[in-house]
Sequence to fold (326 residues):
Amino acid sequence: MLNHKRYPAQILVLLLLTGELLIADIDPGGFQFTDGQVTVDIPFYTFNNQVILTVIVNDKVPLNFILDSGSAQAIFFDRKLASQLGIGFGRKIQFSGVGDNNIVTAYRARGVKLALPGVEGNMMGMAILATDYLEMKRFDIHGVIGYQLFARFAIKIDYQTRTLSLMEPSMYQSDGYQSLPVEIKDSKPYLNTSIGLNGYQNVPLNLMIDTGGSFGLSLINGSHPAIRPPEDAYKVLVGSGLGGNLQGYRGKATLKFNKELQTESDAIFINHREFSKKGKDNSRSGSIGNDLFKEYVVIFDYVNSKILLQPHKSDYYTGNYRLISN
Fold:
């Protein structure tokens, strides 16, 4: 029997920004180092397991943005504030968000300047939400930044020291890391791996890497015959995305990055196939997010189609994840 429990409030997924922005609207923009560096280290803070960066918009004010590898386009939540910052609104666009609802409305903006310590992007594209669907203003969070950074730099995230490093893709050190190949599709990174679940030892997975997600591992029910909630799973409110609320179940699984790196993991089983039916990633099995990544130092290298993982040197166990081989 599946148990029905409420997911603890402190680890609810507050925000799942994996909506499918129309690919024709993706604008990589142009981030560059400002003083000839090949790497910069940027402090961040975390909110609900998400990486929050301070970004200066149009040389006017520092604002807080979520770093989201699953977001094809920078997103700004507050239409009124965008206008005050001199961001001009272009044509209306629509895209699908994860959750109960269908279409999210936004406005296209171009020519926005975004700056972080040591780097800046000029003539950047951005989607301005017509409504702050998630009411993020109350948490002092103003937007999302994703592909435009990941496409330009190799990005190292150390969740323990809360340091994000932007690096030239040819200039970073990879000794001591496990390297995993990824595929970049429609500006999003996907990892092929496997899982042990419901008596199956090596269920193939195609996971979107989503640093905008608070969760660790989420799986889409029915994407493989073995991908279903185990008997001891319990019902949870996973959280809210741009498309509304998301329901699911929580259980245990063994995630196998490769033969050397395997993790006993909490997993969220999504009740429906919202993730795949709204986009082009019909082979997708689920997503992997920050609640699992925070146990590693992670390097995202889109240019060379890989991510690199290095477990933290302290004991690898937080209650939700346990390293079982390395």
Remarks:
- The longest strand covers residues 103-116.
- The mean pLDDT is 81.
- The two ends are 34 Å apart (CA to CA).
